[in-house]
Design a protein that fits this description.
Blueprint lengths: L21 H9 L28 H27 L11 E15 L2 E13 L5 E13 L6 E7 L2 E4 L3 E10 L2 H6 L8 H13 L3 E18 L2 E9 L2 E9 L6 E3 L4 E2 L4 E4 L5
Antiparallel strand pairs: 1-2, 1-10, 1-11, 2-6, 3-4, 3-5, 3-7, 7-8, 7-9, 8-12, 9-10
């Protein structure tokens, strides 16, 4: 029998060829349906295939680890209390008293070679109410009139400590060198010719009287009790005192401070601790 291929509106559907006779139909019906199974045997993994590794540490390595732990604990015991005690207190620091006792100027000459002078200054620093202060450095600058940029001479002090109620007297000498001497030793500030000329005119106009100023830069550490806890904090101070009138003796190149025992104004602030 021929196959029939009816058409659908969308697709063509093909029907399979019908059997030619009933015998052929019965033959197909009587054939048993056989299903083949392709099974594979999965090999089992024996526990003996895993090898047990035993990690052992040599006595030398153990000693090294113990030594490292010991050093670490020792560092913690030393630095942890210091870390807890170091910081920036919330209350403002109390500055010490800086006093200028006297100034004596000698060899004060003004000319075409520049300005030359020797400054002899005495100071007193008093710790009024801090448990202890360590002054790491104090840098002094003498300047003309009220302008710190017109520096005439510089000097520094060695480190020292002051406990509460103690005071320290400092005796410093400053040098202002002429141009030729300054070229050989440039540790002192260079005094410009226009400033030298101005000082000479002021001295002649004011009957031998000139005005100077002194500024300090102080790096120190405070050891004190703040909020019932001992703290170690760094401070920065910039004491200054201007309008220091010096009168020069007639026909002499020397002079003295007219008003001795002058107190400095002391701007001060805490220096933040990096790890606080």
């Amino acid at each position: 029998m021929a196959s029939v291929e009816p058409q659908n509106e969308r697709n063509h559907v093909r029907f399979s060829t019908l059997p030619q006779s009933e015998t052929e139909v019965n033959h197909h019906e009587q054939q048993p349906l056989s299903i083949s199974r392709n099974t594979r045997r999965i090999p089992t993994i024996s526990d003996n295939n895993y090898s047990e590794e035993i990690c052992s540490i040599s006595p030398y390595t153990c000693d090294k680890i113990q030594n490292l732990l010991g050093v670490t604990m020792l560092m913690l015991l030393i630095f942890l209390p210091l870390y807890r005690r170091s910081g920036t207190p919330k209350q403002d620091p109390i500055p010490p008293i800086f006093n200028l006792n006297s100034i004596y100027i000698s060899n004060f000459t003004i000319g075409t070679k520049g300005l030359a002078a020797t400054w002899d200054a005495k100071f007193t620093i008093t710790n009024i109410n801090v448990s202890a202060i360590h002054f790491r450095s104090i840098d002094f600058t003498i300047f003309y009139k009220q302008n710190p940029e017109d520096a005439l001479s510089v000097a520094s002090s060695d480190p020292f400590n002051l406990f509460q109620g103690e005071f320290k007297k400092l005796h410093l000498k400053f040098m202002t060198m002429e141009t030729a001497d300054w070229e050989a030793n440039q540790q002192q500030p260079f005094v410009e010719s226009n400033l030298v000329e101005e000082i000479g005119k002021d001295r002649a106009k004011n009957n031998g009287t000139l005005s100077f100023g002194i500024q300090m830069k102080v790096q120190a550490s405070y050891y004190g009790d703040y909020f019932a806890e001992t703290l170690i904090s760094d401070v920065v101070m910039t004491p200054y005192c201007d309008d220091l009138v010096v009168h020069f003796f007639p026909r002499e190149n020397s002079g003295r401070l007219v008003t001795p025992n002058r107190n400095f104004l002391v701007p001060i602030h805490w220096k933040p601790v990096p790890f606080s």
